[in-house]
From TrEMBL, chain A:
Quaternary data: NDH-1 is composed of 14 different subunits. Subunits NuoA, H, J, K, L, M, N constitute the membrane sector of the complex.
Function text: NDH-1 shuttles electrons from NADH, via FMN and iron-sulfur (Fe-S) centers, to quinones in the respiratory chain. The immediate electron acceptor for the enzyme in this species is believed to be a menaquinone. Couples the redox reaction to proton translocation (for every two electrons transferred, four hydrogen ions are translocated across the cytoplasmic membrane), and thus conserves the redox energy in a proton gradient.
Gene: nuoK
Keyword check for Transmembrane: yes
Keywords, in A-Z order: Cell membrane, Membrane, NAD, Oxidoreductase, Quinone, Translocase, Transmembrane, Transmembrane helix, Transport
Official protein name in the record: NADH-quinone oxidoreductase subunit K
Chief localisation class: membrane
Domain of life: Bacteria
Gene Ontology CC: NADH dehydrogenase complex; plasma membrane
């Protein structure tokens, strides 16, 4: 286990985060965008866990924090999906390009 | 006299009333103007009468305080001012009355009366001013009034051009006045006439400076009084309605230049050079304009050149230290020239043309205008017994006694020309056969003839206030023991009076031979000197000369500056605007409501920050 270096975890987190960022910024389907956001959150969680083991002062706190983040992310996903449902009922679309009411 | 300040306010009130409710009053607005100028006239007469027995009244208050210097405003009633008040308000009142008939049926009737009110206010304010600054303010206001009234028929291209020309030409002179005024202020630390004169008398101002300021101020007078070389606007100003010509371009505003020189006479008399300049320009203008007047065919233009010439006489008188002669001629000229213009207006009103070649034989048809015009003509020609004779004689004596035999000769020749062209005008208009289409020629209504009758009487009797025969009341009163202003009357050799009479009678006789009896063919003169006639007819090509020199140079500079303006100044301004505009457009394009776009921008910004952070190692200077 310890043969895997910290940089590998960090690289994984980085790749995951970039995929998530790319998806969040480019995808047309709102559901995909939400999933991409989850990806980014999880990349962060990997970072937290990595540093809780390989960091300057390794402790359990980082893993606990990752759990908290997951709980909050689950709540966020539930709220996001609920909003999306409401929007879909009103607009009959999940295309993110049509959701530009901030403009007005 | 304490209430003299009310005099200019009546016409101002008339202006304001007509501005506000003139449209509703229509032709009734004439009554507003007439009544209010009548009030001015009554007050002016009271002030004049009061001034005969009381000393000069001066009332001032502090207008502005700058540092420890106080700018004052107020009014002064001295002899000259009181006399000018009377002349201006009288002519203004008569012209107001006359216009009721002349402008009848004009669409902008109330506007005309409003402008007349504004002009009268400015002119009365001008003659009441106790300091140079106030004089300058009213001086410009008078110019505005003149501009508005010349351009009254603004739908006529010529009238528009004439109004602009008058304004610009007089402005050129005003620059001289302004510079002179500022120099005087610099030297004497005051705008007050009395303080300026006091420091000049005390020798606080160097001789060169006195000459310089006097000549600069005289340039202002040249512009306003239509003296050579800034005279060209005055004949063109005849595009305005005829009552306006009578009021502004014969009796009042053009006399403002003469008034200014007279009011600042102690300044001028302190410098020999300045006086000589004034006299020379005056005499030259007198003969120059008179020679042009010999051949013009437009009735109003002949009178305009005659005005220029007579103003030259006044300047000659002032320049020859004949203060009384100048002011006296100013007064008599105001009466007979206003009469001539009003009579000319009556003629134009009757025959609907201004070309004297199309008139003729009007004596029988215009029973009242004819004799009145004759009175004016006799007065200006200097026939003994009428007002013009006495004042012109005073001027000739002043020129002779002032030691300018050449200028005296010029003035004498100009007197001959004056008599000739005025009677040429008279014979062509009133005698002989009708030459043009003359239908429905009828005498003007009473409202027009009455002011002419008043002026006609004044043109005859006004001279008797200052004659070598019955006493020089006006002169003695004007001078009132003030050494600087000279004597009430100048004793001159008696042959001058005889020579002047003979000269003017000769002029009349020649005019009669050519245009009355027709023993000499009309084209005899123009045939003898065809070139000369053409030159005179084209007013010595002064306008063309200006067109070629001053105007083309000015145009060149203007085009160059416009080039700089459009391409350099405007280019920079446009570049700035374009840059900001582009920035705004990009910004607004980003604000498209798409969350993803916002996210992208935020990410790019963050990336940029991280990049800079990485480059600088975390320290930003």
């Amino acid at each position: 286990m310890s043969s895997v270096p910290a940089s590998a975890f960090l690289a994984l987190a980085l790749i995951l985060f970039c995929i998530g960022l790319f998806g969040a910024l480019t995808k047309k389907n709102t559901v995909i965008v939400l999933i991409s956001i989850e990806l980014m959150l999880n990349a962060v969680n990997i970072n937290l866990v990595t540093f809780s083991k390989y960091g300057m002062a390794p402790s359990i706190t980082g893993q606990v924090f990752a759990l908290f983040a997951m709980a909050v992310a689950a709540a966020e996903a539930a709220v996001g999906l609920a909003i999306l449902m409401a929007l879909y009922r009103n607009r009959k679309t999940v295309n993110i390009d049509d959701m530009d009411t901030m403009k007005n | 006299m304490e209430n003299a300040w009310l005099i200019p306010l009546f016409p101002l009130l008339s202006f304001l009333i007509l501005l506000l409710i003139g449209k509703r009053l229509r032709e009734a607005s004439a009554y507003v103007g007439i009544l209010l100028t009548l009030a001015s006239l009554v007050f002016s007469i009271l002030v004049l009468v009061e001034r005969f027995s009381e000393p000069t009244y001066l009332e001032q208050f502090t207008w502005l305080t700058i540092g420890d210097f106080h700018l004052t405003a107020g009014f002064e009633v001295n002899q000259l001012n009181a006399l000018m008040l009377f002349i201006v308000s009288l002519v203004s009142f008569l012209v107001h009355t006359y216009s009721k008939g002349y402008m009848h049926g004009d669409e902008r009737f109330p506007v005309f009366y409003a402008y007349l009110g504004l002009f009268t206010f400015a002119m009365l304010g001008l003659v009441l001013s106790p300091n140079l600054l106030q004089t300058y303010i009213f001086w410009e206001l008078v110019g505005v009034g003149s501009f508005l009234l010349i351009g009254f028929y603004y739908y006529k291209e010529e009238a528009k051009a004439a109004a602009k020309k008058a304004f610009i030409m007089t402005r050129i002179g005003d620059v001289g006045l302004l510079i002179g005024m500022i120099l005087l202020f610099w030297q004497t630390k005051s705008f007050e006439y009395s303080e300026i004169f006091a420091s000049i008398e005390a020798g606080a101002v160097s001789q060169t400076m006195i000459t310089l300021t006097a000549i600069l101020i005289f340039i202002g007078a040249i512009g306003k009084s239509g003296q050579f070389p800034l005279h060209t606007w005055l004949p063109d100003a005849m595009e305005g309605p005829t009552p306006v010509s009578a009021l502004i371009h014969a009796a009042t505003m053009v006399a403002a230049g003469v008034y200014l020189v007279a009011a600042l006479f102690p300044l001028f008399s302190a410098s020999e050079t300045a006086l000589l300049t004034v006299a020379t320009i005056g005499a030259f203008t007198a003969i120059f304009a008179a020679s042009i007047g010999l051949v013009q065919t437009d009735i109003k233009r002949v009178l305009a050149y005659s005005t220029v010439s007579q103003l030259g006489y006044m300047m000659l008188a002032l320049g020859s230290a004949g203060y009384v002669a100048g002011v006296f001629h100013l007064m008599t000229h105001a009466f007979f020239k206003a009469l001539l213009f009003l009579a000319a207006g009556s003629v134009i009103h009757a025959v609907h043309t201004q070309n004297i070649e199309e008139m003729g034989g009007l004596w029988k048809k215009l029973r009242l205008t004819g004799p009145l015009f004759l009175i004016g003509t006799l007065a200006i020609a200097g026939v003994p017994g009428l007002s013009g004779f006495f004042s012109k004689d005073e001027i000739l004596v002043a020129a002779w006694e002032g030691g300018h035999p050449v200028l005296f000769l010029l003035a004498l020749i100009a007197a001959f020309f004056t008599a000739f062209y005025m009677f040429r005008l008279f014979f062509l208009v009133f005698t002989g056969e009708a030459r043009g289409l003359q239908e429905n020629v009828h005498e003007s209504p009473t409202v027009m003839t009455l002011p002419m009758v008043v002026l006609g009487i004044l043109a005859i009797v006004a001279g008797y206030v200052n004659t070598p025969w019955f006493g020089t009341f006006l002169g003695d009163w004007l001078v009132d023991g003030n050494e600087v202003l000279g004597h009430g009357h100048m004793e001159g050799p008696s042959w001058i009076m005889i020579a002047a009479t003979v000269i003017s009678l000769l002029g009349i006789y020649l005019a009669w031979l050519i245009y009355g009896k027709r023993t000499i063919a009309r084209d005899w003169l123009s045939g003898q000197g065809g070139m000369l006639h053409t030159v005179l007819y084209n007013k010595y090509y002064i306008d063309e000369f200006y067109q070629l020199t001053v105007i083309s140079v000015t145009r060149g500079i203007s085009y160059f500056l416009r080039f700089i303006d459009t391409f350099l100044v405007e280019g920079v301004a446009k570049g700035m605007v374009g840059f900001v505009h582009g920035l705004g457009k990009t910004g607004s394009k980003l604000q498209n409501g798409q969350t993803q776009m916002y996210g992208t921008v935020a990410f790019l910004g963050l990336a940029l920050l991280a990049f800079i952070f990485a480059l600088t190692g975390g320290y930003l200077k």
